[in-house]
Amino acid sequence: MSSLTLAVRDTNTMLRRNLLHARRYPSLTLNLLLTPVMLLLLFVYIFGDVMSAGIGGAGADRSAYIAYIVPGLLLLTIGSTVVGTAVSVSNDMTEGIIARFRTMAIHRSSVLVGHVVGSVLQSVLSVVVVGAVGVAIGFRSTDATVLEWLAAFGLLVLFSAALTWIAVGMGLISPNAEAASNNALPMVLLPMLSSAFIPVETMPGWFRPIAEYQPFTPAIETLRGLLLGTEIGHNGWLAVGWSVGLVVLGYFWSTAKFAQDPR
């Protein structure tokens, strides 16, 4: 078989392994999924009326804030899910299975690619679950065409791949699962410091650069534009640029670290 055929075969094997682990030990995925779901319910039912009035003006009802917050929560869901990827990679590195893989006739990159593909699939499934909760409590897309829905789905997959590669690198440099979870914590904190919950223009002037110059805000604004018909502007190109840049950075960082001698 050709090198490409071997790589695809071994990657498929590693993907099945990671999905089997996720099925056997669902508690980590469920715990990470609960964070965006609880935030969604908290902000909608506890703060929804007040936040809607602030965003839509006097007389706005809770539905205005549901429409605003769901796109941001979908991106936060991806950030929460990839924390589990960092933990899983760190466990593989510290429990000896990687050392055994190194002695076997398998394509070396398939170990990492299997983690990435498995994590992207879990992220997409998690986004579907959180999106379904959003629809159940009143979220509705406004005049989105089929092309815009496809573009929104493509953005979610690309952004998920970007964060996953970074999470893989964080897992590789972590000495244990606890450290991996802590190292990946910015994946959850950054969307909270973005435009996910309130518009950037309502933030204090000294804080706005933190929200503006990070990957989550342009991705959230692009997703809002695709699903709700709001202005996208330059955010679309920024979202794609951030995603592609993080994929490249995460890939070369992870493969370089993985190629080093095992710890």
UniProtKB/TrEMBL annotation:
It is found in: Cell membrane; Membrane. Pfam families: ABC2_membrane. It comes from the Bacteria. Belongs to the ABC-2 integral membrane protein family. The keyword Membrane applies. Residues 27-261 form the ABC transmembrane type-2 domain. Keywords: Antibiotic resistance, Cell membrane, Membrane, Transmembrane, Transmembrane helix, Transport. The chain crosses the membrane at residues 25-46, 66-90, 111-137, 149-173, 185-207, 236-254. The keyword Cytoplasm does not apply. This is Transport permease protein. InterPro entries: ABC2_TM, ABC2_TM_bact-type, ABC_2_transport, Nod_factor_ABC_transporter. It is a multi-pass membrane protein.
